[in-house]
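Quick one before lunch.
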Amino acid sequence: MSLSEKLHRSAGLVFPALATLAALAAAAVIDPYLAYVATSWVIFGLLGLSLDLVWGRGGLLSLGQTAFYGLGGYFGSVVAINMVTLTGNSLIWSLPAGAAFGALSAALLGWIIFFARMGPLQATILSYTFTLLLWSVSQSFSMNVGDAAIGGDNGLSGIPGVVVGFGTAAEALGPTEVFVVAVLIAAAAYFLCSWLMRGTFGRVIDCIRIDAQKTELLGYDVRRYQLANFAVAGAVAGLAGALFGAWANYINPTIFSVQEAMLVPIYVLVGGLGTLAGAFVGAIVIGALSFYLGGGAVGGQTTLILGVVLILLVLFLRNGLLGALDALWRRTLPDHNAAARETGSVAIDPTVLEGILVEATGRAGPAKSLATSDLYKRFGGVIPVDKVTREFNPGRPYSLIGPNGAGKSSYLKACAGIYQPEAGSVLIGGTDVTGAAVVERARQGMGVKNQKPQVFGELTVLDNLWMAAFSRTRDKAAAAAISHKILSMLGMERQAAVQASALSHGQQQWLDIGMVLCLAPRVVLLDEPAAGMTNEETCELSVLVRTLARHATAIVVEHDMEFVRTLEGHVTVLHQGKVFAEGDIAALRGDDRVLDIYLGRREHV
Ligand SMILES: Nc1ncnc2c1ncn2[C@@H]1O[C@H](COP(=O)(O)OP(=O)(O)OP(=O)(O)O)[C@@H](O)[C@H]1O
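Model of the adenosine-5'-triphosphate complex:
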């Protein structure tokens, strides 16, 4: 890896560290009023960071970050007012209190959003409603908590500023020192979040943003990860709110206003969605433009400036400032995606595959059967799965065939838990999983490849395999060893560093199949795996499926009759959601009734 590539990889650490040092150095020269105003930009940057975690990384546009910010601000400030009289210091109590309250309120709202499985639009609207609700309630909410007096519309005043030391020795800091403290707190929060998002947690969050269903099919508990990310972001917002209280010495309900809520996404978009550091860049750019051109920190022209900045952004810099810089930098780096075009034909070595499958059995236990009893699924008037009772065991592969719309994919999805059946049952290795979530079935050993290849396009080929292997092993080194083995078995070593989105459809099919193998599945469901493959590749796939079926229960949905023939397995014909015929492919091919349903005739049906 070249020096430029190494620097690019660590840019999210190196440049923010340099920016922190620059801000600290600037504190020595800027005038106190600018330091005072710039502190608010740093606080808004923290708020933007909180949104970028859930939106840029998690994929959910939350308009509730100002709610957690406001709640953290109020709660932290109430704690500050009371603790300052006891200890002489306030910030060291208010910051953790604000962060904890922000995290808790985010966890509560997140629980409703994620466990009710809300769609992204619903979640955005709910988070916005939550902010409006707080805005409305806080207007008339009056309460005395110890020395703190929350006075509805009048807000909460008398919030202690930033002091150093304790008791009578505590000294209030001036605007420049407060700026330094704010920069240090923001830097600490940024590097912590950055560390979290660079690790396995962040990788899973990225996968969820790209394809939540696939992430769950790999065995990751998507809702828990989403909830944890939302709570972390709530903590960052609450921290920002408590810092704001100490900076302004005053908080009122405008903190929950529509204008505040809409500013945060703008900071993130201007800086660069998903970059984390961009939130600070956006807040500083917007803040500085308002300050220098718009008539002061909260100048009257701020809205006009925001409008112009947004229009320019949409027209010229869709990925924000950092996004644009990143794109320019990437142009100078070696193009690993070029390797996607070096298509060597796949050659599955049955001995190597056998070794991998034996090892998988060693790790995951013996193959499991799959059984459905009277499985029934309907969509309005369409019944794609109509009381299907079948049992599948390891040994020979099973093929499900039938004309378009026969219900083959729906049956697999009902087995995988993607569709919840209205009646009947699904058993994996004798365990009833009918009501179990997708992730639970994955943990029972089910590996699923849906009709359309599902790969994480923004991740490299090797990382896609690693994510699957890690889900099963929860051990980084073991996951690396397994993913390398499967990569080499698929003959895709040269594509290891290629982004999955750059692969051809056929290569994505192989990668998706590779990911399923990384799971060491005990039951495998493959929906049209041969689609988009060359004839040679289809032959290799046949070798793979036949070998796999000796170590796990393997069920394949396929239209390619020649492929089905080479599988030499048991064939089930589905028609209108029901099992129509069964047997081996030669007999079924000669069956006039089967021909009729394919040709849409009624002669023998
Ligand atoms: N999520 C859904 N909502 C509504 N209808 C659905 C849904 N999924 C499947 N269907 C309907 O169920 C029927 C069976 O579809 P399914 O995709 O299972 O058939 P298939 O045999 O796999 O077809 P193909 O070979 O074309 O993929 C179709 O009429 C389809 O429109």
